[in-house]
Amino acid sequence: MEKILNRYLKQETGAAPLAIIRIGFGLMMCFSIIRFWSKGWIEKIYISPKFHFSYYGFEWVQYLGDYTYLLFIICFFSAFFVAIGYKYRIAIIIFFLSFTYIELLEKATYLNHYYFISVFSFMLIFLPAHLYFSADSFISKKTYPKIPKWTTDSIKLLLSIVYIYAGLAKINSDWLFKAMPLKIWLPSKYDLPLIGENLMQENWVHFAMSWSGMIYDLTIPFLLFYRKTRWFAFALVVFFHVFTRVLFPIGMFPYIMIISSLIFFDASFHNKIISLIRRLLQFFFKLKLNKKPVLEKIQYPKKPKGLYIVIVFLAIQLLIPFRYGLYPGELFWTEEGYRFSWRVMLMEKMGYTTFKIVNGKTQDFFYVNNSDFLTSFQEKQMSFQPDLILEYAHYLGDHFTSQGHKNVKVFAESYVALNGRISQPFIRKDVDLYKEKESFKHKYWVLPFNDEIKGL
Amino acid sequence: MLKNIFLSILAITLIIACNDTEEIDNGPNNDDFNRQGMLINLADNIIIPAYQNLNTKLDLLVSSKDIFISSPNLDNLNLIRSSWLNAYKSWQSVEMINIGKAEEILYHYQMNIYPTDINDIENNIAIGNVDLTHPNNNDAVGFPALDYMLFGLETTDTAIIQKYTSNVDAENYKMYLSDLVMQMKSLTELVLNDWTSSYKDIFTSSSSNSATSGVNMFINDFIFYYEKGLRANKIGIPAGNFSATTLPEKVEAFYNKEVSKILSLEALNAVQDLFNGKTYVGDSSNPSQPSLGSSFNDYLTYLDKSDLASLINDKFDIARQKIQLLDNNFFNQVNTDNVKMTQAYDALQTVVVLLKVDMLQVFNISVDYVDADGD
Question: Is A420 on the interface with B (CB under 8 A)?
């Protein structure tokens, strides 16, 4: 066993694939930040709300007000330096920290693809993506044409985890036997040219897309791994992600996945891309070919410390999505263990939650107008996620206590509809949420789900 | 690899095969729902007739006002009061429509902001000739201001009439009353003419599923009105649901003291009729029978959710019954037995959930939240 492992760790591969991934990822991030900024989302999401939802254990995260823009600027430049491979190690660390910090600022905006970017950039810290076709290599006049195979394999493994876990999550009775939530989402795409008014309305299309989505997620990593099916698989990747981009508001995620999946190709393919980029650079910037520096070729150390971190990290990634098994109740309903598990576009859930502030002594009460404290986006997200409901209830309790209200108790009246079922009561009306503490324990005050969703 | 492809094809074929048999009895219609047809029904048979009715009622109010101003006496006071009430009732079918010109000119803020601010009104009267469209005057104009001018100036009718006759500021009172009515009339005309001349086409052709399309904004506004304008303003706020104590002086038509229930019921009927696409007929004296056209109800049925549509109607009916149990004067109701008020509120609330959660989920419309990414 150890022999096999050692032999594996000695295997090498060309450094070009990792370089291409680094460039692609960096540029995508630059573009994402510009896009995010230009849509005014920095202001809307991070600056204007009075109150921010924080992650359990990360309540210490400080809100930066207008300095949030500075954070985005830092994030942008670090991504750019990653792309060109200048001071790579520092750049990718700063990128990971600044991006993750931004995400920690507001839990209501949690998206799997933002989490993916954090995870991916964390791994890149430990991978030698800057040893080839990078500013660092150009300046130090050293290049490493070969890098250990495990470095590119770890990215392949991470992508496979994302796909396969997303596929496993789709093996449930709502997705496969009710075509939910696609049955809700697709008919509303009636505006789409050509397919909107006919295909998107068809029952069989909803089922076909549910099933093929599940099969796609579960098989695509394997199809990408095998050389013979690789191009076919890549065509599928492009088709699938572009198609979902057309259908759903998923921003940059499809492009990031398309670029990332290039890692599965051989180094020769990436070398072609690199020489194409070289030619483009020469054409546009008139770099003189004959002045190209002679790069010293050096072997990359065989077993760097990064290896162990990456192994542990990937192992954690394999385990985290299964933590929902530790909680009772329906996962889609309680969402205990729902995040960080690649459950992507999996359910249609909406809620309506109002809060009652009660004076515990006199039993006098009044209802809170949520729009006094939350943006409509935050209210929408809060209304069906128990941890957000709890955090907001505490905020309300603190707020009204500081306003001079006595013996404050906070009760939620909440209704949630999941995957087209008629809404049902969500939170126990008799539980004073102001007394309940956030923890990893099961939230007993979430009412049981009236139906059953079978599956993983 | 081959096995995977084989399995995929097998699975898809199976699904399609199973599905074909299923579709025969309970699959949704394959015909696409005609959203534009729904918008045309809303515009032609509900929205525009409601504005026209209000406009006619305001015409009558204008003439009653002219009669009252030329000879302020008890008969003429009662005449203008009854014109006011008819127009106010008609308004209840228009209040839920806040799109197009109405939204642009802040029509609602100048028609029915209550409680009205009597200090502002008295100041305006004392100064004379103020700009009623100014935002500071939103709570000194419209139906609530008329409510005060016609019922609340003094405690007896004789004393009220004296304000318009023997009071030193009588001319100013007359002018303010006249200005109020004329402003309401001209704003309504502006909104109505915009609908009939150009906005109808804009509205009915804007049936795409985007945050700014006519159909989505209309649905959002409709639900927002039901939640805030009807449930909260008319019932919840006076009942003290949003404050530490009850606020009975915040009822609609506070000075009249007899019609807050009538107005609330009108508003609820208007909302339910719009949900069901029922043609607007206005007064009960109107001989034409209401007919049903394409509506949210039909859209839900098209999406296989007729159970939700009937549940919504059932809950509307229950809410109506709860409101019918209340005193004509909500001020009295809040002060004597506020539990009935909060029960009416709770009944209205059940429909908020069904509209805002269930109906919006089924329609899956892009709502006017922050346009953020999903995943």
Answer: yes
d(CA A155, CA A224): 13
Instruction: Assess if residue A336 is contained within a domain.
Output: no
A266 interface with B at CB cutoff 8 Å: no
Q: Which residues contact A165 (CB under 8 A, 6 or more apart)?
A: A321, A341, A342, A343
Q: What is the mean pLDDT of residues B16-33?
A: 41
Q: Do A41 and B370 touch (CB under 8 A)?
A: yes
| pLDDT tens digit sequence for B70-87 | 999 999 999 999 999 999
Cβ(B221)–Cβ(B211) below 8 Å? no
Subunit contact B16:A348, Cβ cutoff 8 A: no
Are A96 and A194 members of one domain?
no
Q: What is the pLDDT of residues B186-213, one digit of tens each?
A: 999 999 999 999 999 999 988 887 767 8
- In chain B, the residue whose alpha carbon lies closest to the alpha carbon of A197 is B32
From residue B306, give the alpha-carbon distance in Å to each of A84, A126, B270, B296, B303: 58, 56, 21, 11, 8
Q: What is the pLDDT of residues A165-209, one digit of tens each?
A: 999 999 999 999 999 999 999 988 888 888 888 888 899 999 999
Non-local CB neighbours of B73 within 8 Å, separated by 6+ positions:
B161
Give domain status of residue A412, yes or no. Answer: yes
pLDDT tens sequence across A311-358: 999 999 999 999 999 999 999 999 999 999 999 999 999 999 999 999
DSSP states along A148-204: EHHHHHHHHHHHHHHHHHHHHHT-BHHHHHS-TTHHHHTGGGTTSTTTTTTGGG-HH
Q: Is the ipTM of this complex over 0.90?
A: no
Same-domain pairing of A286 and A362: no
pLDDT greater than 80 at residue B22: no
Set of chain A residues whose Cβ sits within 8 Å of the Cβ of B208:
191
Nearest CA distance, B267 vs chain A (angstrom)? 22
Q: Residue B138 falls within a domain, yes or no?
A: yes
Query: Which residue(s) pair with A358 in the sheet?
Result: A365, A409
Asked if residue A159 and residue A31 are part of one domain, the reply reads: yes
